Amino acid sequence: MVEDKYLDILMEEMNSKFELVLEGHQVLRSDMRRIEKTLSEKIDENSARIKINTDMIRSNADMIKVNTNMIRSNADMITALDIKLSKRIDEVDEKLTNRIDKVDEKLSKRIDEVDEKLTNRIDSVEESLGARLDAVAVDLKAHRADTEAHHGIYRVQEPTT
Fold first, then answer.
1. CB distance 147 to 154 below 8 Å
2. Which residues contact 148 (CB under 8 A, 6 or more apart)?
3. pLDDT in tens, 77-111
4. Quick one: DSSP state of residue 153?
5. Which CA distances in Å does 47 have to 32, 40, 58, 120?
6. Whole-angstrom Cα distance, residue 15 to residue 18?
7. Distances in whole angstroms, Cα of residue 4 to Cα of each of 1, 17, 95
8. Helix (H) or strand (E) holding 141
């Protein structure tokens, strides 16, 4: 009997302790379910954000590819335009050089013609003036001789300086 009582007391004490352990397990389970639910919500939220960011990254990568292709296309167009403009500049340079050379040739020829005409004219005027001066000198010499022949009537004096 004493043993039965002692066993009953012990069993009762063990039962209360089991109940405490069970209550602790229930609290832990409930806390774990709450934490699991919170973590699951956060994981779902972060998964959604990661998906959005991944989609944005893919979209940006596609835009980068498009922009890279546009840049390459523009670079090709600029190169083609540069070549075209260089050719056009060379053509204009050649045309202008040829025109300037032709104008220079015409002006040089014209200047030579004018120089020749003026030289001929100057020579002609010089000849004409030379002949006239000679005629005036002859007239002057004759006039002087005539004046000296009439010594008493006319007197020519050289200017004194």
1. yes
2. 156
3. 999 999 999 999 999 999 999 999 999 999 999 99
4. T
5. 21, 10, 16, 106
6. 5
7. 5, 19, 131
8. helix 2-149
Contact predicate 148/158, CB 8 Å: no
Positive or negative torsion for Cα 76, 78, 80, 86: negative
| Average pLDDT value for residue range 117-126 | 91
* pLDDT score of 75 more than 70: yes
Task: Quickly count: other Cβ atoms within 10 Å of residue 113's Cβ.
Answer: 10
Q: Distance between CA 94 and CA 91 in Å, rounded?
A: 5
> SS3 of 17, please?
helix
Question: Is the Cα torsion angle 71, 73, 79, 84 positive or negative in sign?
Answer: negative
Give the separation between CA 77 and CA 69, rounded to whole angstroms.
12
